[in-house]
Design a protein that fits this description.
The complex is a heterotrimer of chains A (225), B (538) and C (339). In chain A, 31% of the residues lie in helices and 30% in strands. Chain A has 225 residues and is α/β, with parallel strands linked by helices. In chain A, helix 2 crosses helix 3. Chain B has two domains: 258 residues, MetI-like (MetI-like fold); 273 residues, MetI-like fold. The chains are: A alpha/beta (225), B mainly alpha (538), C alpha/beta (339).
Chain lengths: 225, 538, 339
């Protein structure tokens, strides 16, 4: 059973064909990279997997269950996915710890359990001593980690990252990359990330989908040398 | 959406729709029904008769002339002051912006009385100006269309100051900076800055236009025949309800056409000003310009705010008038505050709900158009609609026999503005903030309470505050439905204006104005404080 | 845990609504819609409340609605009347209400001393405490005031005279009376003449008084109550009754009228209120106010400055005839008189 499977997904925005009969699958615990220039449809794929967009045609399955297609639509709220957005979308009015807590409030955890989980996630993402800060007060790297922490909070099995390290300098990016790798291994999560940066691909991807104009032209396996 | 969620969302939509229809549409509907359906069945004769009279069109053109003139003058004044405050950054900008709000917060019928004292035939200023050689006896009369335009422009330009300031704040400086690498200051202003600010500024101009178009109290005090006055006379002279409603239609249609045209102009341009970075500006204008602007602005404030207030205060002396006025109108003040609070709250809630439900759908424009109707329709017509709708035995009596009907009257009138205000703020919010919550498993109603409302709090408070102030001075729609035994302050004031001793009226006017100003200052302060938190964002 | 706070909110909202709606009703209430200036009517109603213990809930008129408000409201509320008594400060609109079936007859014992001319023959309404239409002039500007309505057509008052809009209030009634007395054509000619003589048309009788007292206009047509206000304020204005010479037109005396609303919620209290309003005591009180209302009950003594009804020459036309001409007059005024 694949962790994620897309079957002939097509998406049009007015006259522009963003995705053209795209089909691929991702295995459990695998890390797939969607690689390509801007505008090739990477973000759209992620949004469709998350349930934020509906394709015009095609199906999406998560862990063997149909979530999109054939008249079925499971909303994002119920898909148990973690996502880091391109512009991070941090909530400006919430402190760091509140970001995590707010997400956990929608689960059935008791308050002490939530408290523990918040602490755990903050430690994992090394934000413990910034837990009372607002997003506006955080540095670029800290903001990225917060976005990541929020995505991981509810223990998702699938993690989607949209150009996660685009705005970071080289050193920070190095650190974040190893961070995500470590997390991925610890949590044995399936990761799909979109990027146009070769170094990210090199360090994180198990498999690469080279995307161009809504379809992929090459599927490479293994890290590029 | 999960099963439970769909039902809760459906319930929320249904409740919102029900409230909207009951408060905004039904009174209009009842009034329109009554105008075509009577003892003799269905008939549009009234419309045919009334609309064929030539006089109506003369009056309508009067109203349009006034509306255009007012908008033009108010826009010029408002843009100049707005630029001075936010772009040129004159010193004491905040104080200036508070003072500029004064002429708008003081109800126009009060200002008109002050202006008559100043510029009427025997007004203080008139007498003084006539003595200046060259002007002499040919000094124009206040009781004329230009006079009405003067008073309306001076009381409404603050709206445009507000929208100009907001537009400038939302303008990404980088647009200008990119141009500054190539062109001179003047070109940048003309080709980049002003065109980009235009949609924002014009939204204020639109509001001024509509207000001037339906204005009744000022033209009637200055004895200029305009369309709204006609509608009143249809009632009192003829008790011709059908004719009066028919007569109200052209005004509504004009307003609708103007609004429609504006919507078409603004829609493709909306993205220019939304969500842009708010970069701190270093003022790049020289001290000479700043000083000159500051002087002009303060002169305008003196003319439009200080002068009328001073005249009123002078008329209100001795100070015992204030005690008398307070004793006379204590209950009315309490009633007004209660009604205004109720309707401001309802406005904020309803405006938010409608904006939320229509934000991603195309129906929004239609709903907005419908919600403007109660505002454009003349006071007595709405009043009749309200009576016909709510004056029935049973549950509806609960509404009609209490202050609730007044709350509904005010809310119905201003829903369009609450919807517009919250909608604009919501549009500015990037969808990803909600999406992030959705993906993280947060249900829709917690997205609303946990993410949307806290971030939108300044706008919601602003809508509440303005809704409160508008409801506080509302006269036309509420006058017909006051429950016996309770009146509101404006109704009382208007009554006293013609029947009571002038000094009490002046004192009460000053009290009213002070209350409104205080409310305005409070709103502004709370707004600024809540904004601070959010401004510390990226 | 969430349900509890939700219940609390519902209870809270319900409580707030309840407060708005009003907790419980008084044992005895009477609802009156009154067009007479609040300044004068409120003390009278307060007196009634003190004496009988019945709570009086009043709706006053506003200039904003141009006396339209109350009548329109009464007509609109016909399906479920909310008022018990209609206390008008003039007579024409009361007759309109009679014609529309909004009021019902009530022959109050207090009505007996009132002269027949000021009562409805079927008992639908009764007049009391009247005003007269007068010419007001500025004493600083005018040595020789006009003494007749026709003087307003003369050259010497061109551009210096003011009247209130003849579509509302007593001015409208006055116009209708002229239509009834002179006949349509002569009345129309009169108003056309006023137009040619540049008569100013102002918002209301009080405005006419204010403008004349301020010197913006030299002469004007207004009511005794407004005119007296200027005198009491010490302004340079005086008034006189026009056309009083033998064979002259006479002037209009317009009473307050009171009527029982058909189907009102508290009819007995309404009748009691009417009885009180028509009593000599109330007329005496109103005569002594700033509005110097003229008592119609011959037994009431009024102070000096109040004109004596017996000595006023009135226009020889019934109120019914006047009321019948309201629509015709209004039509003409709106079409031809108001530019």
């Amino acid at each position: 059973m694949h962790a994620i499977e897309l079957v002939e997904v097509t998406k049009r925005f007015d006259k522009l064909v963003a995705l053209d009969k795209l089909s691929f699958s991702v295995e459990q615990g695998e890390s797939l990279c969607l690689f390509g220039p801007s505008g090739c449809g990477k973000t759209t794929v992620l949004r469709i997997i998350a349930g934020l967009e509906l394709p015009d045609k095609g199906k999406v399955l998560i862990n063997g269950t149909l979530v999109t297609g054939d008249g079925v639509y499971v909303p994002p709220v119920d898909r148990k996915i973690g996502m880091v957005f391109q512009d991070l979308a941090l909530w400006p009015h919430m402190r760091v710890e509140r970001h995590i807590d707010f997400v956990l409030q929608s689960t059935r955890m008791s308050r002490p359990a939530r408290h523990d989980r918040v602490r755990e996630i903050l430690e994992l993402c090394r934000l413990t001593d910034r837990k009372r800060a607002y997003p506006g007060e955080l540095s670029g790297g800290e903001q990225q980690r917060l976005a990541l922490a929020r995505a991981l909070a509810a223990n998702p099995k699938i993690l989607l990252l949209d150009e996660p390290f685009a705005n970071l300098d080289a050193e920070l990016r190095e650190r974040m990359l190893s961070e995500v790798s470590r997390l991925k291994n610890e949590l044995s999560a399936t990761v799909v990330f979109a990027t146009h940066d070769q170094q990210e691909v090199a360090s994180m991807a198990d498999r690469i989908l080279l995307m161009k104009e809504g379809a992929y032209t090459l599927q490479a396996v293994g890290p590029l040398t | 959406m999960s099963h439970r969620e769909t039902w809760s969302m459906r319930g929320f939509s249904a409740a919102t729709a029900l409230l909207f229809v009951a408060i905004t549409l039904l009174p209009v509907g009842y009034a329109l029904m009554r105008s075509v359906w009577g003892a003799d069945g269905f008939s549009i004769d009234a419309y045919r008769i009334v609309l064929n009279e030539g006089r109506q069109w003369t009056l309508l053109s009067n109203s349009l002339y006034i509306a255009f003139g007012t908008t033009l003058v108010a826009t010029i004044l408002g843009v100049l002051v707005g630029f001075s405050i936010e772009y040129i950054r004159v010193p004491a900008g905040r104080a200036l912006s508070y003072c500029v709000a004064v002429p708008f917060l003081v109800p126009p019928y009060i200002s008109a009385v002050a202006w008559i004292d100043l510029l009427g035939e025997n007004g203080i200023l008139t007498v003084f100006l006539r003595k200046i050689p060259g002007i002499g006896a040919s000094f124009p009369k206040l009781y004329s269309i230009p006079g009405v335009i003067l008073v309306l422009a001076l009381t409404h330009y603050p709206i445009i100051v507000l929208t100009t300031v907001l537009a400038i704040r939302q303008l990404d400086r980088r647009f200008e900076e990119a141009a500054q690498l190539i062109s001179k200051r003047g070109t940048v202003l003309r080709s980049i800055t002003l065109p980009l600010l235009a949609p924002g500024i014009l939204s204020g101009a639109l509001f001024v236009f509509i207000l001037a178009l339906v204005s009744f109290s000022v033209p009637s005090l200055l004895q200029v025949d305009v369309y709204p006055v006609e509608i009143y006379s249809r009632f009192s002279a003829f008790y011709d309800f059908r004719g009066a409603t028919a007569q109200a239609l052209p005004l509504v249609l004009t307003g609708a056409v103007v609004l429609g045209g504006w919507a078409m102009y603004v829609r493709p341009r909306r993205a220019w000003l939304s969500g842009a970075r708010r970069l701190r500006t270093l003022s790049s204008t020289g001290p000479a310009v700043r000083t000159a602007s500051a002087v002009c602005c303060w002169l305008l404030v003196a003319l439009s705010a200080a002068l009328p207030l001073a005249v009123l205060i002078r008329r209100s002396l001795p100070l015992t008038s204030y005690v008398e006025a307070w004793l006379t109108a204590r209950e009315e003040i309490a009633t007004s505050i209660l009604v205004a609070t109720g309707s401001a709250t309802l406005l904020a809630m309803l405006g938010f709900s409608i904006a939320y439900l229509t934000r991603r759908r195309s129906g929004g424009g239609g709903i907005y158009a419908l919600s403007v109707l109660p505002f454009l329709l003349s006071g007595p017509v709405i009043g009749i609609g309200l009576i016909l709708l709510w004056n029935h035995h049973g549950m509806r009596a609960l509404v009609y026999d209490s202050l609730i009907v007044m709350v509904f009257a005010c809310t119905g009138r201003f829903v369009f503005f609450a919807h517009q205000g919250t909608g604009a703020a919501m549009r500015d919010l990037h969808a990803s903030l909600e999406e992030a919550a959705a993906v993280a498993g947060v249900p829709w109603w917690r997205q609303v309470t946990g993410v949307l409302i806290p971030i939108l709090r300044p706008s919601l408070l602003g809508v509440w505050g303005l809704g409160f102030l508008f409801s506080l001075r509302e006269l036309d729609a509420t006058v017909l439905v006051c429950p016996p035994g309770s009146t509101t302050l404006p109704v009382r004031l208007f009554t006293l204006m013609h029947y009571g001793p002038s000094r009490i009226v002046a004192a009460l006017s000053v009290i009213t104005a002070t209350m409104i100003l205080f409310g305005g200052a409070l709103t502004a302060t709370v707004y600024a404080k809540t904004r601070k938190v959010l401004d510390a964002r990226y | 845990m969430k349900t509890r706070s939700r219940t609390r909110t519902v209870v809270g909202v319900a409580a707030a609504l309840f407060c708005l709606v009003g907790c419980g009703k008084e044992p005895s209430v009477v609802v009156v819609y009154t067009a007479l200036d609040e300044m004068y009517s409120r003390p009278v109603l307060d007196e009634f409340e003190n004496r009988t213990g019945t709570e009086v809930r009043a709706v006053y008129d506003t200039e904003a609605a141009k006396t339209t408000g109350l009548v329109t409201r009464l007509i609109a509320e016909q399906a479920r009347p909310r008022a018990d008594v209609f206390w008008n400060n003039e007579v024409a609109q009361t007759i309109v209400l009679k014609n529309k079936g909004v009021i019902e007859p009530y022959l109050s014992p207090s009505a007996k001393p009132i002269p027949a001319k000021f009562k409805d023959p079927e008992g639908y309404w009764t007049g009391f405490a009247a005003r007269a239409r007068v010419i007001i002039y500025n004493t600083d500007l005018v040595r020789d005031p006009p003494t007749s309505m026709h003087d307003f057509l003369k050259e010497e008052w061109s551009g210096k005279a003011a009247i209130a809009v003849p579509l509302f209030g007593t001015t409208a009634t006055h116009a209708a009376a002229l239509f009834a007395f002179w006949g349509d054509e002569e009345a129309k000619d009169f108003f056309r003449g006023l137009l040619e003589n540049n008569v100013a048309v102002l918002a209301g009788n009080a405005t006419v008084r204010d403008m004349v007292a301020r010197g913006e206009y030299a002469v004007g047509l207004t009511d005794t109550d407004d005119a007296n206000g200027a005198i009491e304020d010490g302004l340079p204005a005086q008034w006189l009754l026009p056309d009083q010479e033998p064979g002259g037109l006479g002037t209009l005396v317009i009473p307050n009228t009171v009527a029982l609303v058909k189907g009102g919620p508290n009819p007995d209290a309404g009748k009691a209120l009417i009885d009180f309003l028509l009593s000599p005591e109330v007329e005496s009180k109103l005569a002594r106010t700033r509005s110097i209302q003229i008592p119609l009950n011959p037994s009431v003594e009024a102070p000096e400055k109040v004109p004596d009804l017996a000595k006023i020459k009135t226009i020889d036309v019934s109120f019914e005839a006047t009321a019948a001409k309201m629509a015709v007059a209004a039509e003409f005024i709106q079409k031809e008189f108001l530019r």
